[in-house]
Amino acid sequence: MHAERGESSIDLVRAARQGDLGSLGILLKIHYGGMYAVAYGILGNSADAEDVCQDAAITAMSRLGDLRDPTAVSAWLKAIVRNNCRMRLRTRPPLPVGLPDGSAGTSFIDDPALIVERHATRDWIWDGLMRLTPTVREAAILRYFTQITSYQEIAQVCGVPVGTVRSRLSEARRRLAGALPGTVAERHDDITALTAERREEAIAVLSSVPSATPEASLSGRWSPEVEITWPTGDRLIGFSSLFAVFASDYADGVRYRLTNVVAGPGLTIWENQFVNPPEDPDHCPPAITWLLKEAEGRIQSVRLFYAPRPAPACDPEHPR
């Protein structure tokens, strides 16, 4: 209807920011050609250009509140595309957040989970994610809402080949970009309460040793036969094995700092940093990601992924 009435991009931006999210879908269609031209001009490959533009479209859906000047919408969208292209050319797949060099005249927090929490579109985006198949949803959530963004890292966390991750993310982008504009008028679940609940659960588990949290208090949510896959590939049964590791780390002076919780039906992701003791700064890797899968309301499996350790600094007097 907006297009037939001849409304400008400025009118559409203003309408979308006032809650008319259907205007955003029209806005993206209007500017998609220009976005694609920028991506193709940088990457020279139509498939990569489509991927980058679809990532940018999803970003724009969750970031509209960051666009302070409606007249800058074209530059804003193209800036997202250019940023993603640059990251792809650096061999790291693009994380669809952030704009380069403050080119849109605003400041951002490059944490997609926090961004979505700030805006009314949060539940809309999450509802779209929940409509994906579980395996596709899992890859998309890791890609867009955690620090696990490269295809290789997602493949390790999910336990699948890199090619499978690539195809799942392609399907996620295609389905989200096509489906979200058509679901803006529907009623969406509020994910905030679930995220807060899962955050409390993470805190309880990660602080289990110093607070002496009894394992029985977790039995309602954790299956006694939960399968835990460690980053080494080793598998253990039962969450008591986690407490043994916590106790060992805690005795060595290691602490945990929870940095992110992503929650949805059947899936929860925790990200936490290790705080190593000063006398042993390399005791644990920098961080760990937990992928918790549920069935019938109980956690049935956990996969763990260590963030890679930073490469040692090169000694210019003794190059490798």
UniProtKB/TrEMBL annotation:
InterPro entries named among the record's database cross-references: NTF2-like_dom_sf, RNA_pol_sigma-70-like, RNA_pol_sigma-70_dom, RNA_pol_sigma70_r2, RNA_pol_sigma70_r4_t2, RNA_pol_sigma_r2, RNA_pol_sigma_r3/r4-like, WH-like_DNA-bd_sf
Annotated RNA polymerase sigma factor 70 region 4 type domain residues: 124-176
Cited CDD domains: Sigma70_r4 (cd06171)
Record bears the keyword Transcription regulation: yes
Sorted UniProt keywords: DNA-binding, Sigma factor, Transcription, Transcription regulation
Domain RNA polymerase sigma-70 region: 31-92
Record flagged with keyword Transcription regulation: yes
Gene3D superfamilies linked: 1.10.1740.10, Winged helix-like DNA-binding domain superfamily/Winged helix DNA-binding domain
Superkingdom, natural source: Bacteria
Pfam families, per the entry: Sigma70_r2, Sigma70_r4_2
Subunit text: Interacts transiently with the RNA polymerase catalytic core formed by RpoA, RpoB, RpoC and RpoZ (2 alpha, 1 beta, 1 beta' and 1 omega subunit) to form the RNA polymerase holoenzyme that can initiate transcription.
Family note: Belongs to the sigma-70 factor family. ECF subfamily.
Protein name as it appears in the record: RNA polymerase sigma factor
